[in-house]
Description:
Layout: H1 2-33, H2 38-43, E1 47-50, E2 53-54, E3 57-58, E4 68-75, E5 84-87, H3 106-109, E6 116-119, H4 136-150, E7 155-160, H5 163-173, E8 178-184, H6 198-218, H7 227-239, H8 245-251, E9 256-261, H9 269-278, E10 282-287, H10 293-296, H11 298-309, E11 322-325, H12 334-346, H13 349-359, H14 363-374, H15 380-397, H16 404-433, H17 441-465, H18 469-483, H19 490-494, H20 498-507, H21 522-526, H22 532-540, E12 550-552, H23 559-572, E13 581-585, E14 595-597, H24 600-609, E15 614-618, E16 624-631, E17 638-646, E18 649-651, H25 658-664, H26 672-678, E19 692-694, E20 706-709, H27 716-727, E21 739-746, H28 749-753, E22 758-763, H29 779-802, H30 810-830
Parallel strand pairs: 5-6, 5-7, 7-8, 8-9, 9-10, 10-11
Antiparallel strand pairs: 1-4, 2-3, 4-6, 12-15, 13-14, 13-15, 16-17, 16-21, 17-20, 18-19, 21-22
Amino acid sequence: xxxxxxxxxxxxxxxxxxxxxxxxxxxxxxxxxxxxxxxxxxxxxxxxxxxxxxxxxxxxxxxxxxxxxxxxxxxxxxxxxxxxxxxxxxxxxxxxxxxxxxxxxxxxxxxxxxxxxxxxxxxxxxxxxxxxxxxxxxxxxxxxxxxxxxxxxxxxxxxxxxxxxxxxxxxxxxxxxxxxxxxxxxxxxxxxxxxxxxxxxxxxxxxxxxxxxxxxxxxxxxxxxxxxxxxxxxxxxxxxxxxxxxxxxxxxxxxxxxxxxxxxxxxxxxxxxxxxxxxxxxxxxxxxxxxxxxxxxxxxxxxxxxxxxxxxxxxxxxxxxxxxxxxxxxxxxxxxxxxxxxxxxxxxxxxxxxxxxxxxxxxxxxxxxxxxxxxxxxxxxxxxxxxxxxxxxxxxxxxxxxxxxxxxxxxxxxxxxxxxxxxxxxxxxxxxxxxxxxxxxxxxxxxxxxxxxxxxxxxxxxxxxxxxxxxxxxxxxxxxxxxxxxxxxxxxxxxxxxxxxxxxxxxxxxxxxxxxxxxxxxxxxxxxxxxxxxxxxxxxxxxxxxxxxxxxxxxxxxxxxxxxxxxxxxxxxxxxxxxxxxxxxxxxxxxxxxxxxxxxxxxxxxxxxxxxxxxxxxxxxxxxxxxxxxxxxxxxxxxxxxxxxxxxxxxxxxxxxxxxxxxxxxxxxxxxxxxxxxxxxxxxxxxxxxxxxxxxxxxxxxxxxxxxxxxxxxxxxxxxxxxxxxxxxxxxxxxxxxxxxxxxxxxxxxxxxxxxxxxxxxxxxxxxxxxxxxxxxxxxxxxxxxxxxxxxxxxxxxxxxxxxxxxxxxxxxxxxxxxxxxxxxxxxxxx
Length: 831
């Protein structure tokens, strides 16, 4: 089998490398060969030959043949006033400003009444040869040389995106030749670039350049991805040092228009506002556009540019500082939230990284990080590294750091989450939230984070499971569990009732007054961690033979000694009934750790695997089970509700395995993991046609039993029998029982009505009327039932408090719950 799998993988790899990658390279080579040569643009008068430039200026001593060809486009022919030169971003070319026959581009629109040029910066667009350096400073020298070739002494410079850095450097090199600058969605100070750290950004660009080389060679892109242009753009950023730009902007006397879109997702809007603070001669105009306003809003952009540069055709014109905010910033969390974001924008990366790691430790925190990235408030590189570090620490702590695939997952998962957050915020959250009033924006962002948490949780599960039958059935089970309250976690079921619990606490003057119920049961009447053996002793004190007898194993001794003690009890105590016998943790919950031991070996194995005290109890041979909720809220007790327990029975078809039958069953697949773990040694067994297998004999919802509301079983005979047992209860210090659930086994309904049954167990204060889990009923039924039940609990507790019984304090309850949770974790590990 392993050898065949190896051959399959060999064939797949060969097909990928030979059939796809090599074909892709051949296709890409043919496409490059068909690209229009530079000579065509020279013949058409749309290209110039410029000397190679460095950040200090032209390279000296080169032959004419060493010059670089730069293509360009021009519009208009007005020669008397300063023309406009448009500089593209990275990657890009002069064609970014060229429109179509039906729609003029920005280059043509700004040429009204003057001449305009758009040119390829060295090494970009249609260029064939790489320059010595790709820095914005060297490009600025190239544009000035282009002006010399065109006979332009003075020009207005429009720098889009990374072209803005070129424009700033031009003004710094020769301010007299720059009539004005338009920073159009432009980069600027180093503090506003990504993380704000020069070295961190350089590392990102170097990694990106390396990734394009790898992708170009190993991905079969068939020329659809122009990775050469992408690599040029990365080289442009990598060679450009933005650290001097803040100083240039502070000293700049050239009139400057900062035209920026509030929804720019590549250069954040707060960067433009910061640049305006630095520049004494700037006018800031914020629009409702994004980074691609030269394409998507060319006419409006041209109007803003035209109105500005017209004022500075005269060299003597003086710039006036102004702000025009056409899309005011929304502050969803007020001035405090805005101040926190301002700190985040300019904080050192070494402070932000550990903060991201800490916040991203939990899923809602990761969603907030993804939202901040999507809203351009946080650099994606910093966010990715911070989340990856957190994932790595988590993997080491949980012992998952040994496999290479695990570490690759740690690198990919945070990036996928951030990408999902970016898409979600830009395409869904931000457009929807903008529709509401200002006061609703904070709520909108909180809801967006909540939705993103769900999506981030659900999407990996969907991708992981959609490919197989078992996975698809698991998805169907997850959806079913989500839609019906029967499967909801306890916190989700109780959360809507929090205001009602607060009201009961105020009404009865104590939030935990219900813990005064059941004076005969320790730990607040059975709030958490109560002893089952102590409760059983209290029931046995009544002398009622319907209570199944049990004993608690001694805590000391080896498993063999404890087993020997129990075997002696089985021989000496006829009330235990001999083997088989039920074994369960003395402080268990929800059926955890319960086993039916049929031999000495079973007992010894369970004793060795179970931590803490153990209760051994007689096994009832009665086939049916109910849960009867009892309350004593008046002079006499009464039955509050009766729940019929339907045990899961799997029927074979003679074709499918036990595992397949479980996953295909509409209900059983909801607890497939529980059943398949229980029958791990039989999961590949094919059940005969019509053969039945009981998947769980424990009458517990978490263990697979179905609960159904059964008011028809609430008979006077049953109620009388329950009250007799409850009245005879003598628990801790002789205290009584007035609130809780009896779990009963019975033969048939007539016998139950006549009071013939076995009492398996009684649960106290924290028990529930299990009718709330009836799959036929709605969440409203469950909530109404819980409100009625807990109203009684509060009332009984208040009555007992008046009689001298003290409810638990918050500190006592917290200690009990914490100890119980630790015990439950140990049970989950051992069972």
